[in-house]
Amino acid sequence: MTDEFPHLGKGHVPVLRLGDVLLVTLQGDLHDSTAEQLQQDIGETIARTRATGVVIDISGVEVVDSFLGRVLAEIAAQARLLAARTVVAGMRPAVAITLVELGLTLPGLRTALSTEEAMQLLARPGPDPRPGGTRPGSA
Amino acid sequence: MRTAEGVEACLPIRSDMDLMWVRQHVRQAAARLGFGLVDRTKLVTAASELARNTLVHGGGGQMESARVTRGHLQGLRLAFSDRGPGIPDVDRTLSDGYTTGDGLGLGLGGARRLVHEFAIDSRPGAGTTVTVVSWALRPPHPREEM
Amino acid sequence: MPEHEAEGQHGSPTWEVRDFLRRRREQIAQRWADESLFRAVFTVSRDEAVEAGRAVVEALAEVAGTGRPENPAAAGFTTVREQLGRMGAARARAGLTPAQISVEVDALRPPAVDLLVADFPDDAPAGFVRECTNALTALMGTLRLVVMETALNEGEAMLDRQRLQMLEVATPVIRLWDGIVAVPLIGTLDSARSQVVMETLLEAVVTEQARFAILDITGVPTVDSLVAQHLMKTVQAARLMGAECIVSGIRPAIAQTIVHLGLDLGTVVTRAGLADALGYALGRLGAGIVNAAPRGAEPR
């Protein structure tokens, strides 16, 4: 388990491991390359630790533009290929309204109100790693 | 009524580090002009999209910001300009899903929905300037922080 | 023309006024602090009134320095515009009519002009003294304009604020259960109100940690495509936050409109009435009529 505390810093967002779940806390404004680095880190950590879930807490993020939105969607897609489910937790109302207006509804992304809810969601046996329930039980 | 202090600026857009400065400046300027939280978030996001557009498609450029007024309304005008290749077909670029670079193709069309006024001036070979204006229609909420 | 001879000695009248204002800033501010406009606004301390007066005098001096005392858009006013607006607005709130406020601002002129005249030596050319008084009078007239204009704008802004407050009052969020909130909408939905509804509901989702948000439109007479779009956006935004939004109370006439308009509410969960929506949400939370396993009852 990593005990580094997540900070806004250039370059690196720590990936915490809590049992089978990886927890990532994003804070403040993210540098593009930091976000891309994170995507790579998460992929590698899932492969190394056999984690079955990823929780990305974005309650401290004030702005999600299409770039960061795409990175979040890609992290989820990539995790899915590695048999892990991803939940994005704590999106602020203003951010959600803006994303919808932007046309970025991220249909492939699982969401939760808080990190705790995200953890509970992942603790439940997931019928399929695909959100939206379009194909229940296909896993 | 507030003064234009901290609102007028000209910022370079040369690297993705500059995108962070652009977002920070727009966030603070909009807060100063009394934008509500949602309108401010929309404007900062639009600025991020447009600045990235300037960087990726225009090969870099700059953003100028200024305070504008109309009657008792105050607003923020942001102009993103580059000397890049220009946009051959503006209408097509504005339609969702159109993209030439990295992204989901929501750049310009998406940014347009986040602001109140939107104009593009582009000449092939001479560069592109995208100017947007948003108005602080809602008085600032008392509970709001910077 | 004696005035022309005076030019060489005294400089232009507006500059003379500028120098006078700077020189006598303290005395002018002291006298203004006793005038009703300042007295009525700065009720707590006289020092505050004097301080405000100094700022206004300084602004006037700057405008005089531009040589155009009749320009209400002069940059010199920028620094005091907000303060002047507050003063005008405070007087308006106290029940004064615009004409009465105008008279109050005008009352600041005589003390300043008296000081100006007293400052001239007895042998000063009468023509030049008159020109300077005229310039100061023009400047004070401009100040009056600025106060009136700013106060009017403030008034409009206040109306906007009141309009918004009314919208917020008309949008109550009700906590129906642990993790379930509802907004019963009554009356016509326009774009501005839809925006307020969306923001209010989503804020409540966060504060109540509500996994379910019900938008009940039983009391909404008509739904046009714009309103339907807002409903869709609310549902999508709630989903991004980790909540599910249910639209209840779609009356047959509205259902018909939605079909006619060709609007796709396909991905939106709808229920006939508020009770049905609550039942659906409770079921999804794992809470039946007997709340055996209160899912979603986490500490808020």
UniProtKB/TrEMBL annotation, chain A:
Residues 11-122 form the STAS domain. SUPFAM superfamilies: SpoIIaa-like. Pfam families: STAS. Gene3D superfamilies: STAS domain (3.30.750.24). This is Anti-anti-sigma factor. The lineage of its organism: Bacteria, Bacillati, Actinomycetota, Actinomycetes, Kitasatosporales.
Automatic annotation (TrEMBL), chain B:
It comes from the Bacteria. It holds the Pfam family HATPase_c. InterPro entries: HATPase_C_sf (IPR036890), HATPase_dom (IPR003594). Residues 39-132 form the Histidine kinase/HSP90-like ATPase domain. CDD domains: HATPase_RsbT-like. SUPFAM superfamilies: ATPase domain of HSP90 chaperone/DNA topoisomerase II/histidine kinase. This is Anti-sigma regulatory factor.
TrEMBL record, chain C:
InterPro entries: Bact_StressResp_Reg, STAS_dom, STAS_dom_sf. Keywords: Phosphoprotein. PROSITE patterns: STAS. Residues 170-281 form the STAS domain. This is STAS domain-containing protein.
